[in-house]
Amino acid sequence: MLRITLTLLLAAAASAQKLSSKLTQITEFGPNPRNVSMYIYVPASLPPNPPILVAPHWCHGTAQQVFNGRPWATLGDQYGFISIYPNTSNLADQCWDVSSKESLSHDGGGDALGIVSMVRWTLKKYNADKNRVFVTGTSSGAMMTNVLVGSYPDIFAAGSAWAGVAFGCFAGNGYGEWSDACATGKIIKSGSDWAAVVKNAYPGYSGFRPKLQTLHGTADNVLYPQNLKEQVKQWTSVFGVSETPTEVTKDTPLKGWTRSRYGKKFEAYEAAGVDHNIPTQADVVMDFFDLKCKSSNCYSRRSR
Ligand SMILES: *[C@@H]1O[C@H](CO)[C@@H](O)[C@H](O)[C@H]1NC(C)=O
Ligand SMILES: *[C@@H]1O[C@H](CO)[C@@H](O)[C@H](O)[C@H]1NC(C)=O
């Protein structure tokens, strides 16, 4: 009995070890002015043009914690996609730089460029699908999701932001600045003003824009729920659709969560009574990105 228990424990330790040893650091991957570290998980078996999922961490979080705490690597094994885990060099609070003019500009620099360099490197190295690059994260990772789809609409196919803020809401004069005003829901703009912030990130760009879903708890006292409303105004205006939803579904995927869709490219979930620790629903992300798809007809930048 003791021996069996011991064997099981050892087996469990070995499989945990195996999983963590599969997160590989890449050191030379292109322009990276803020010295963000790159970690990647590449499944043993992949389709010829695998999709890519980027998973930026939360404040005080690490690449390793996202790798361990989210199912993306396991789902990548199952459905055939690569996942990338950037790690900030900002050791003060391990939050992403979502404030600098550099991050908030296409190819401008900041943490955003470092992360995009990881994507560009991976596209080349693994002949990955440039039309199926996705980004999802929680809190600071959700802010970075908004930043990446805003500054790099030419790279991403879609984003999924869990408890974040609108693109540019943290805008400041330096890298990785915290904005109390934004966090507490005091940065209020009209849809067209918010959309201008996004459009100014990449002046003259008129191509495909990544679709976005954003999810937020009504009891979030770190990034106040007003930030969901500001994202709704921003992205509906970017997509040129009404701020009135085209479809509202209650109790999905959990009781008390309400999904509002605004045309085909944007959806917002309001999770009643949920605080800043909104629990990621992997299926919601996988389905929005169509990452379970194995046909030649999956959602991509080529989809309408
Ligand atoms: C970049 O970050 C790594 C740790 O992630 C550190 O070892 C290295 O010294 C940093 N390089 C610079 C130039 O800051
Ligand atoms: C990421 O950075 C943190 C903070 O410096 C560090 O503890 C961690 O080991 C780094 N690497 C990964 C894979 O998370």
Automatic annotation (TrEMBL):
NCBIfam families (UniProt xref): esterase_phb
Organism: Cucurbitaria berberidis CBS 394.84
GO function terms (MF aspect): carboxylic ester hydrolase activity
Domain of life from the UniProt record: Eukaryota
Protein family: Belongs to the carbohydrate esterase 1 (CE1) family.
UniProt entry tagged with the keyword Nucleotide-binding: no
Signal peptide per UniProt: 1-16
Compartments where found: Secreted
Function: Esterase involved in the hydrolysis of xylan, a major structural heterogeneous polysaccharide found in plant biomass representing the second most abundant polysaccharide in the biosphere, after cellulose.
EC number(s) per entry: 3.1.1.-
Broad class of the protein's primary localization: secreted
Swiss-Prot/TrEMBL GO biological process terms: xylan catabolic process
EC main group: hydrolase
One GO term describing the cellular component: extracellular region
Listed name of the protein: Carboxylic ester hydrolase
Keywords on record: Carbohydrate metabolism, Hydrolase, Polysaccharide degradation, Secreted, Serine esterase, Signal
